[in-house]
Amino acid sequence: MVKLTSLRILLAIPAFYNYEVHQGDIKTAYLLGQLTEEIYMEIPEGVSAPTIPAENGNPVCQLLRGLYGLKQSGRIWNKAWDDFLIGKCQFKRSAEDYAVYYRIGHENSPLWTLIWVDDVLWIGKPCDIKEAKQELAARFPLKDLGSAHFFLGMNILREAEDRKITLCQDQYIETILERFGLQDCYSVSTPMEPGLDLTSLQPTQEDSTLYRSMLGSVMYLMLSSGKCRSMVQGGPERSWSTKGGRGPRGPPGPLRSALIHTFGYFTENLDQGGSGWTRRTRGTMTPPAGPGVVFTFC
Q: Is the pLDDT score of 175 beyond 70?
């Protein structure tokens, strides 16, 4: 799976050079890898297939390809994808991110291919992207989604004239607010309560699964676009982990309250129609020459 840092860096390239960014989806990706181990399974009810008698007398069949839920499926799908791009399409794989592939296309222009499980991004000139799609569609069942607009919970907004790409996570924020029943929580102007010392709070027994799910949602937001980085890295997660290693079975109630405060910060910015995120978290990348490239994480 492509690293989110790699994704942000590589999206700066089409913003500056005005390359295209296209997206595709590999249908039933985990069913496409070839198994090398001998694996047998009982035949599902209603399925007619050649059988091999098992020791207990129940008919079984040998699996030749991966299945969803099979622990080898992810690995063999990745191998099938990797062998095809490197062996057949002359791509080179990044040494820093194994989900990023690169080759030189027509007119010595670069072409990047990124993958996240079964979601694919192409970055390059239109003729090179078209050729890469045709190659991939000849090997795997590919659904061409055209220009990329939504990837990994982020809306990709393109302003070609200004050479700007905006990654907007409003939809993801609304989803996690609704998931935890916090869409109507009070809005606040800071991601943490000013002056709050979480290390002095005592843990209490509460719903561990809920707390971790909330924290994971905030961490994904932080990893994607850098929102509330100090909240996650220096806040509830770190404070809880310092309370005797892994901490108690249930999470500290006051720490979950601190997370709810963070969700209120999300609400406050959504109330401003997304402009709040743009003002607070704008980052600028300035290339050596030419127009600037601006990422706005709204």
A: yes
Q: For residue 205, what are its two tokens?
A: 């027994």
Instruction: Output the pTM of the full model.
Output: 0.76
- What is the token pair recorded at 103? 């080759």
Domain boundary among 118, 148, 178: 148
What's the CA gap between 24 and 121, in Å, rounded? 7
**202 residue type, one letter:** Q
- Residue 159 pLDDT greater than 80, yes or no: yes
* Segment among 84-88, 136-140, 242-246 with least mean pLDDT: 242-246
Domain-embedded: residue 26: yes
Residue-range definition of the domain harbouring residue 76: 1-148
Q: How many CB atoms lie within 10 A of CB 100?
A: 23
What's the pLDDT tens digit per position in 183-200?
A: 888 888 888 888 877 776
Q: How many domains does the chain have?
A: 2
Nearest to 54 by CA among 68, 66, 42: 42
3, 141: one domain: yes
CA torsion angle 67 69 70 71 (round to 10): 140
